[in-house]
Amino acid sequence: DWGGIYLNGTSDNDGIGEFDFCVISFGGNTSGMAVSNVCFFQSNSGHFINSGSEYSYSTGLSAADCPVDISNSGFANNDDFAAFLDSVTIKSYPGNSAFDNGVNAFGISGTVTENMTWTDTSSVITSLVGTVTVNDDIVCTIPAGTIIKSYDDGQFSVKGTLDVNGTEVNPVIFTSMQDDDWGGDTNNDSTATSPEPGDWGGIYLNGTSDNDGIGEFIHCIIRYAGNSSGDANANISFNQSNSASFEYSICEYSAMHGLKALDSPLYIDNSDFDNNEDEEHIIAINFQR
After folding, report:
1. Nearest to residue 90, comparing CAs of 53, 131, 37, 136?
2. What is the edge-to-edge ordering of all strands in the sheet holding 214-218?
3. If DSSP codes are grouped into helix, strand and coil, which group holds residue 31?
4. CA 13, chain centre distance (Å)
5. Rounded to an integer, what distance in angstroms lies between the CA atom of residue 278 and that of residue 284?
6. Angle formed at CA 200 by CA 283 and CA 88, multiple of 5 degrees
7. Shortest CA distance to 263 belongs to which of 211, 223, 217?
8. Cα separation of 39 and 12, whole Å?
9. DSSP label at residue 277
10. In 3D, which of 245, 261, 194, 187 has the Cα closest to residue 223?
11. pLDDT tens digits, the chain, 289 residues: what are they?
C-alpha cells in the first residue's frame, strides 16, 4: 500500500535508521525506493530491535553494503524473505522470529570482520545468497543446532577460522535451500522443488598466502554442495589450511568430491561420506612433503 522507509547512506549521506519497539506494515511497493518495508542502503549504522516487519509486498527488511543490528524482532507475512542482507558486515542476529513469509529466512552475503558466534535461532533459518567471507585472524563459531541453507551462489570462503560445534543430538547443518529434511519447507514451495547435488558452492578453507584457513568441524552434516561456480569444488575443501579436522560428521550428495584437501594437516575421525558424485574419489587429499 505504500513505498516503505529508505535509509540512504550513499555519497556523504548518513542514512542512519534506529528502530526500537516499532512495527512497519504493508510497505514495499515497486514504486518506492525501499522495495521492502525498511531498507538500509550504505547506511553508516542502523538497528532494528524489539520491532516487527510484516505484510511487505516484497522483503520485510533489506540492507546492502552496511552494518545493521537486528535482534528480538519478528518478521511475518512478507511476500519474499523475512530479511535480505546483501554484502553486509555480518553480525549475530539473536532472538528473531519468522513466520509465513515467502522465504522464512535471513538471506545473507557479506563479510565477518570481528570474532562472532553465528546466531542459533530455531525459527529463523540463515540462507547464503552469495559468498560469506570470514576474514583472516577472525573466528566465526557455529553453535550446535544451527541450520544454514544456501542458494546456488552461496558459499563460505574462510580465510580465518570456521569453528563448527555441533553435538550428537543437535548437529550443525549446511544444506540446500530446497532441502526440507532439515528446518522444514523454508522456501514455502511444498514439493515443487527438491534438493540435488551442486545446489550450492560449499565451504572453502583458504589458507593460501598468510591466511589461516582453519576449519574445525564436529557433529556436522554437509549436503548438496560442490557446484562448479563455487571455490570448493566439493562439499568442503581445505587449501593449505593451518589446521583442519572433520570429526563425527557426514558429508554427502556433493556434485564433486565429498571432502577435498591440499597441503593441509587434516584429521578425519568417525565420519561418513555417502552419495558424492565424483566417480574416482570420495575424499581427495594431496599432501606436500
Report:
1. 131
2. 116-117, 139-143, 161-165, 214-218, 244-247, 266-269
3. coil
4. 29
5. 10
6. 120
7. 211
8. 18
9. -
10. 194
11. 999 999 999 999 999 999 999 999 999 999 999 999 999 999 999 999 999 999 999 999 999 999 999 999 999 999 999 999 999 999 999 999 999 999 999 999 999 999 999 986 556 889 999 999 999 999 999 999 999 999 999 999 999 999 999 999 999 999 999 999 999 989 888 888 899 999 999 999 999 999 999 999 999 999 999 999 999 999 999 999 999 999 999 999 999 999 999 999 999 999 999 999 985 566 666 655 3
Name the pTM for this structure.
0.94
* Listed residue (215, 230, 220, 222) closest to 253, CA to CA: 222
Q: Are 177 and 233 in contact (CB under 8 A)?
A: no
Residues 62 and 33 sit within 8 Å (Cβ to Cβ):
no
Q: Which amino acid is at 79?
A: D
As a whole number of angstroms, the distance between CA 276 and CA 289 comes to 28
Long-range contacts (CB closer than 8 Å, 24 or more residues apart) made by 20-23: 20/47, 20/49, 20/50, 20/51, 21/49, 21/50, 21/51, 22/48, 22/51, 22/52, 23/51, 23/52, 23/53, 23/54
Measured in residues, the chain has a length of 289
Residue 126 has φ and ψ, to the nearest 5°, of -95, 135
Identity of residue 180: D
Q: C-alpha grid cell for residue 87?
A: 554484502
